[in-house]
Automatic annotation (TrEMBL):
It comes from the Bacteria. Its EC number is 3.2.1.21. It is an enzyme of class 3 (hydrolase). The lineage of its organism: Bacteria, Bacillati, Actinomycetota, Actinomycetes, Micromonosporales. GO terms for cellular component: cytosol. Keywords: Carbohydrate metabolism, Cellulose degradation, Glycosidase, Hydrolase, Polysaccharide degradation. This is Beta-glucosidase. It comes from Micromonospora narathiwatensis. It holds the Pfam family Glyco_hydro_1.
Amino acid sequence: MTTAPMPDFPAGFRWGVSTSAYQIEGATTADGRGPSIWDTFAHTPGRIVDGSTGDEACDHYHRYAEDVALLAGLGVSGYRFSIAWPRIQPTGRGAANPAGLDFYERLVDALLDRGVEPVATLFHWDLPQALEDAGGWLDRDTAHRFAEYADLVAGRLGDRVKLWITLNEPFIHMSLGHGMGVHAPGRMLLFDAFPVAHHQLLGHGLAAAALRARGCGPVAIANNYSPVRLAGDTDADRAAGAAYDALHNRLFTDPLLGLGYPEGLGFDPGVVRDGDLAVIAAPLDVLGVNYYNPTGIRAAEEGSPLPFEMVPLAGYPRTAFDWPVVPDGLRDLLVQLRDRYGDALPPIQVTESGCAYDDAPDADGRVPDPERIAYLDGHIRAVREAMDAGVEVTGYFVWSLLDNWEWAEGFTKRFGLVHVDYATQRRTPKSSYAWFRDRVVRP
């Protein structure tokens, strides 16, 4: 971390923080909410590192007013939260559950009352279990159910949400949830998971159309990106890097921007029907970029089921997740997106950027987290460098407002600007909270 002044950002640049429903809300049986795939997965022995579930999480459902006050104190202009699909449609289809919509209406109105713009993500991985039982994202019908759900939410909140994000990280949901089985729903399909990719993207396009039919916008999607760092210099290494780049970075972006699916990945394209790509490529108002780290790649050993091998990147500080801290990777990624897509690329907002460390209160009850401050300092400067290189970036959201339930890692990884004591639900702003408020948001 440098003590140099933070760079200037344009007036109207959106500074925000992000969360997701299952990770913070709790109240998994309140107000008629149905079960999601993450309820099922978390309650399956052996799936979660510490054996915990999101049943209570951060109890945000009951404590949202306290959390909105934290947002107001932070001074951010945007709060990215997700809406739990099974809280709106307990079985993933049919009429809306009014009590579920009421909760999000209370949240949105509380945000607006405190001068914070609501940024709503419609799907952050918590598919209603009833839809999974019917085939989930492997089934084309789920894309149409998603559009129906989007219409229901837009009908209640469309006049107040300032940015709509359809999907969060469809690559991660496909790869970890359906390719390798380490996230819900726990399928292990490897490259047979392509229908999950296509149906998520089709759902995005159909949901975007439903939102716009309600007069809602702007509309975005939040993709996870990881620039490739080659761990070798052979033609085979370069081919492996290109294959990984196509899978992680292009599979969920090329079709959105009218280029169709990248070739050479070995997917069966049989699920793609006439007209699907046009639906997927409806204009985006914003591209959400979630960035945590680059990926080291080299050629795979002969006989490997994958055309590449992922290798650790040496020489960088590491987070508690053992992820390398590479701020320049964010700058390089943003410039690469601009160079790759040119005029087809919409304005970018960095919709997630953050790090996990083992933060704990000290003897005085304070929570110092200098490593997180250094991480954010470096990544915010990287965004400014990309903007200076001509990339249009209009916002930056920290992951996350609160320490929360971190998917398969349970409560073992802390990403928040605010420490949460999960036994008491006490919130304690960390030193990074004050730094972000005083050095970045309100310098």
